[in-house]
Amino acid sequence: MIGARVRVVNEGSSFTIVVCAESLREVEQTAKARNPESTVRIVFPIEPECFFASGPHTGAHAGLEAMEGLTNPTRPS
Protein backbone atom coordinates (compact mmCIF):
# COMPACT_ATOMS: atom_id res chain seq x y z
CA MET A 1 0.00 0.00 0.00
CA ILE A 2 1.30 3.42 -0.95
CA GLY A 3 0.00 6.92 -0.48
CA ALA A 4 0.37 10.08 -2.51
CA ARG A 5 -0.85 13.65 -2.43
CA VAL A 6 -3.23 14.48 -5.27
CA ARG A 7 -4.09 17.99 -6.44
CA VAL A 8 -7.78 18.35 -7.36
CA VAL A 9 -8.77 21.36 -9.48
CA ASN A 10 -12.25 22.37 -10.58
CA GLU A 11 -13.90 25.62 -11.64
CA GLY A 12 -14.54 26.94 -8.15
CA SER A 13 -11.58 25.73 -6.13
CA SER A 14 -8.51 23.59 -5.84
CA PHE A 15 -7.30 21.44 -2.97
CA THR A 16 -4.91 18.63 -2.09
CA ILE A 17 -5.96 15.22 -0.77
CA VAL A 18 -4.04 12.11 0.27
CA VAL A 19 -5.04 8.82 -1.35
CA CYS A 20 -3.80 5.34 -0.41
CA ALA A 21 -3.86 2.51 -2.96
CA GLU A 22 -1.81 -0.35 -4.38
CA SER A 23 -0.14 1.77 -7.12
CA LEU A 24 0.22 5.37 -8.28
CA ARG A 25 -2.12 4.59 -11.16
CA GLU A 26 -4.77 3.41 -8.69
CA VAL A 27 -4.16 6.52 -6.56
CA GLU A 28 -4.98 8.69 -9.56
CA GLN A 29 -7.98 6.56 -10.61
CA THR A 30 -9.40 6.63 -7.08
CA ALA A 31 -9.09 10.41 -6.88
CA LYS A 32 -10.74 10.79 -10.28
CA ALA A 33 -13.59 8.47 -9.27
CA ARG A 34 -14.16 10.58 -6.15
CA ASN A 35 -13.97 13.88 -8.09
CA PRO A 36 -15.26 13.09 -11.62
CA GLU A 37 -15.80 16.71 -12.70
CA SER A 38 -12.31 17.79 -11.64
CA THR A 39 -8.78 17.56 -12.97
CA VAL A 40 -6.60 15.40 -10.71
CA ARG A 41 -2.80 15.16 -10.68
CA ILE A 42 -0.34 13.42 -8.39
CA VAL A 43 1.76 16.01 -6.57
CA PHE A 44 5.50 15.63 -7.09
CA PRO A 45 7.90 15.23 -5.44
CA ILE A 46 6.32 12.36 -3.57
CA GLU A 47 7.03 12.59 0.16
CA PRO A 48 8.59 9.37 1.54
CA GLU A 49 6.55 9.52 4.78
CA CYS A 50 3.35 9.66 2.70
CA PHE A 51 4.41 7.19 -0.01
CA PHE A 52 4.97 4.21 2.26
CA ALA A 53 1.48 4.00 3.77
CA SER A 54 1.05 1.50 6.54
CA GLY A 55 -1.95 -0.13 8.09
CA PRO A 56 -4.48 -2.85 7.42
CA HIS A 57 -6.25 -1.02 4.56
CA THR A 58 -6.40 -2.81 1.22
CA GLY A 59 -8.33 -2.40 -2.02
CA ALA A 60 -10.02 0.53 -3.75
CA HIS A 61 -12.63 0.94 -1.00
CA ALA A 62 -9.85 1.51 1.52
CA GLY A 63 -8.33 4.06 -0.86
CA LEU A 64 -11.56 6.05 -0.77
CA GLU A 65 -11.76 5.79 3.02
CA ALA A 66 -8.14 6.87 3.38
CA MET A 67 -8.71 10.15 1.56
CA GLU A 68 -8.22 13.03 3.94
CA GLY A 69 -10.65 15.94 3.54
CA LEU A 70 -9.56 19.28 2.20
CA THR A 71 -6.04 20.43 2.85
CA ASN A 72 -4.68 23.72 1.54
CA PRO A 73 -7.97 24.82 -0.04
CA THR A 74 -7.68 27.80 -2.37
CA ARG A 75 -10.33 29.79 -4.13
CA PRO A 76 -9.60 31.99 -7.11
CA SER A 77 -10.29 35.68 -6.53
How would you characterize this protein structure?
The chain is α+β, with helices and mostly antiparallel strands. It has one domain (2-67). 29% of the residues lie in helices and 31% in strands. A four-stranded antiparallel β-sheet has the order 3-1-2-4. A hairpin with a 4-residue loop joins β1 (2-9) and β2. The longest helix is centred in the middle third of the chain and has 11 residues, at 24-34. Mean pLDDT is 76; it is low at 56-77.
Write the layout of secondary structure elements.
Elements lengths: L1 E8 L4 E8 L2 H11 L4 E4 L5 H4 L7 H7 L5 E4 L3
Antiparallel strand pairs: 1-2, 1-3, 2-4
Jot down its keywords:
alpha+beta; 4-stranded antiparallel sheet; 77 residues
Q: Compute the separation of the termini in Å.
A: 38 Å
Supply the number of structural domains.
Answer: 1
| Helix proportion | 25-40%
Low-confidence stretches: 56-77
What is the 3D form? Answer: globular
What is the mean pLDDT? Answer: 76
Secondary-structure element string: EEHEHHE
- State the total count of DSSP E strands: 4
Question: Helix segment count?
Answer: 3
What structural category do the secondary elements indicate? alpha+beta
Biggest sheet overview: 4 strands, antiparallel
Which band does the percent of strand residues land in? 25-35%
Q: Strand order across the biggest sheet?
A: 3-1-2-4
